[in-house]
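Example with several molecule types.
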Amino acid sequence: KAGVTQTPRYLIKTRGQQVTLSCSPISGHRSVSWYQQTPGQGLQFLFEYFSETQRNKGNFPGRFSGRQFSNSRSEMNVSTLELGDSALYLCASSQGTGDGQPQHFGDGTRLSIL
Amino acid sequence: DQQVKQNSPSLSVQEGRISILNCDYTNSMFDYFLWYKKYPAEGPTFLISISSIKDKNEDGRFTVFLNKSAKHLSLHIVPSQPGDSAVYFCAAKNTDKLIFGTGTRLQVFP
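Resulting structure tokens for the full complex:
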């Protein structure tokens, strides 16, 4: 069974630009969550999508947005990039049925802002 | 507001001995607790979880203990192996949102 796939693996952008990251979940998984990992803040929850609807949201500004498609694939968009957005962005998928099934993570997209 | 805390940033254990990683939480509404292991340049890998209604769950060398009254959980690895060297994250689940601790770097030396 293929795991969670994130593209691209690495990305370099400059301040003010916008970026779109992609995530393909494990087949059959309907929930996709996004996390930001930075050295100072650890892993922080961005948002979760289930059946094309945002079901949970973390404490990030509106510059961070996402969407989910009918095949459960998800994209995350960050607009007006700031230096502090440099981080590892991780996507995780699960069945989303709330019964304790774990989330499985991709290897992330390393975003660097110059 | 750090709802999940791992107070030990690092732990060093000899091969074959027990590794004990600790985690404290503040929100009594969490329904599941999970442990993940992370190697550099890879995403976190799920290790083991425990429901809030249980106090112990075991899977091979890994055992998680939950003390609800103390809002504390721990991960025991017995026996520890060099391949266990990684960063371990404790996570608490509320609906489908995971709240992570800041991680503990475990080093297992020969």
